[in-house]
Amino acid sequence: MITKGEVCELLGTGGSRYQIVGIRIWPSPTWLVVGFPQFPLDSPADSTPEEGHLMPATLTTAEQLQVREAAERLQRQFSGFLNKETIERFMNDSLDTLMQKATTSAWIPLLAERFARDRLRALVRLESDSSALNPSILFLCVHNAGRSQIAAGWARKLGGDRIDVFSGGSEPADQVNSAVVDAMAEVGIDISGEIPQPWADEMVRAADVIVTMGCGDACPIYPGKRYVDWELEDPSGKTVEEVRPIRDALEVRVRALLGEVLPGAELS
Predict the structure, then answer these.
(1) Looking at residue 222, what is its pLDDT?
(2) Which of 95, 141, 246, 250 is labelled catalytic?
(3) pLDDT more than 70, % of the chain
């Protein structure tokens, strides 16, 4: 197999301009290759590759602009809490993480913004006085497309602004399970705009309770954290009718957990 050094030599970059994330061969439809420029993104849009040559996969000019705009939105949101350099670093690192497994760059700007936002929310928690913070729960499963999304939806609905909710997966799917989206819509919870994402160190460290659902050894273990493991069927491949019992079981469990972390609070 071709090595990273050989790829860098072929690209003529020494590896400094692009982060190498895999190998692809042009023009095979089963691309084997490469990476994307580091933030800030100032490289030109992809040019047409010559047949037989390796070509770095970069964000288009429009996507680069979307990333810049996303970083600016995050800077406005976290102004007074985090400095510009920290926000850009997290945006850059979130891009790195997502691009490592991306098969297309089409949704990367939106995914990176959401992932970076959750990580920055968690970072603010870690750097704040814990006595002044709402309790936080992190819901984890394999694909962040079913059980963890259902649980997070219930927690946001029932706990409102009294609880900070995070979710992630060990192997994030491309989109939330459509049957899960429909089943949640039946009870008035809209998760159609949610996008599966991985978890990050900051999210795990910032959580007061970590709920795991089927991710096994892939779930992060941090000493001193409270872990709760819920054994529930995976809704993947199931119909709306089959998802409903999973949805309802998760409502019961989320209500019970919120009763513990928000004692005396009236749930929605």
Answers:
(1) 87
(2) 141
(3) 79
Packed helices 147-159 and 178-186: angle between N→C axes, nearest 10 degrees? 30
Nearest-angstrom CA–CA distance, 23 and 25:
7
User: 219 catalytic, yes or no?
Assistant: yes
DSSP state of 47: P
Nearest-angstrom CA–CA distance, 257 and 45: 48
Q: Between 108-126 and 84-99, two packed helices, what is the crossing angle to 10 degrees? A: 130
List 176, 203, 219, 258, catalytic entry: 219
Decide the pairing of beta strands 35-37 and 18-20: antiparallel
Q: What are phi and psi of 189, to 5 degrees?
A: -115, 115
Q: What is the value of pTM for the model shown?
A: 0.76
Contact indicator for 179, 243 with CB cutoff of 8 Å: yes
Please report the beta strands in 119-188, taking only residues with DSSP state E, as ranges in sequence order.
136-141, 164-169
215 catalytic? Reply is yes
Residue tagged 């649980």 (tokens): 151
CB of 35 closer than 8 Å to CB of 56: yes
Cα 248 from chain centre: 25
Backbone φ and ψ for 197, nearest 5 degrees, come out as -145, 160
More confident residue, 9 or 210: 210
First to last CA, the chain: 56
**Among residues 95, 122, 155, 215, which one is catalytic?**
215
Window from 21-25, 145-149, 202-206 with minimum mean pLDDT: 21-25
